[in-house]
TrEMBL record:
It comes from Haloactinopolyspora alba. One of its GO terms (molecular function) is FMN binding. Pfam families: Flavin_Reduct. Keywords: Oxidoreductase. The keyword Oxidoreductase applies. Residues 34-178 form the Flavin reductase like domain. It comes from the Bacteria. InterPro entries: Flavin_Rdtase-like_dom, NADH-dep_flavin_reductase, Split_barrel_FMN-bd. Coiled coil: none annotated. This is Flavin reductase (DIM6/NTAB) family NADH-FMN oxidoreductase RutF.
Length: 192
């Protein structure tokens, strides 16, 4: 392992041994390495009417198609955690490339107000951001402790695509941005 904390994955026997030894992981290096994984950007909304709140996250993933389940992770001290817990539901709002301003507005501790955005109620009563690329309305199934984060596992009860002709907003190497202006190749990815 070099000074950066990254492993040399060359074919040497010593390099292979280092991969199997438990190491202390530097959180800043972990953030840098995980930043090499491109993710979409979402605003999670929860609450109803005056209690509605939202925050920007990129830790969303699909879990199961049958039953339809998804999850996302949220820092355990997040202002949105008690809102989700009390509401028992949340909406995943997928953002489009031109919505960087919206993502940044919901990213800070002094977040944008959901009430100031154009919304419509989902089946659960949680607001859907009307300008989102797509959304998933979810009923909370479980909250799991995950270190300094909480994992919110939920069943999808409503979904929709609101903007078919826009590219998503993405997060890569600590920066927000739209996809490059290159033709998209429609190659299926098979889940093995």
């Amino acid at each position: 392992m070099d000074r950066s904390g990254l492993h040399d994955t060359g074919g040497s026997a010593d390099g292979d041994m280092a991969l199997h030894q438990e190491q202390t992981v530097d959180s800043s290096i972990l953030r840098e390495v995980c930043g090499m994984f491109v993710t979409g950007v979402t605003v999670i909304t929860s609450g109803r009417e005056d209690t509605a709140d939202g925050t920007t996250v990129n830790s969303f993933t699909s879990v199961s198609l049958d039953p339809p389940m998804v999850l996302f992770c949220l820092h355990r001290d997040s202002r949105l955690r008690p809102v989700i817990h009390d509401t028992g539901a949340y909406v995943v709002n997928f953002l489009a490339g031109p919505q960087e301003r919206l993502a940044r507005a919901f990213a800070g501790r002094a977040s944008a107000a959901v009430q100031a955005e154009a919304t419509r109620p989902s089946l659960t009563g949680v607001p859907v951001l009307s300008q989102a690329l797509a959304f998933l309305s979810c009923q909370l199934v479980d909250e799991l402790e995950g270190g300094d984060h909480v994992i919110f596992l939920a069943r999808v009860v409503e979904l929709g695509v609101l903007r078919r002709n826009q590219d998503p907003l993405i997060f890569f190497r600590g920066s927000l941005g739209a996809l490059a202006d290159e033709p998209l190749v429609s190659t299926p990815i098979w889940d093995g």
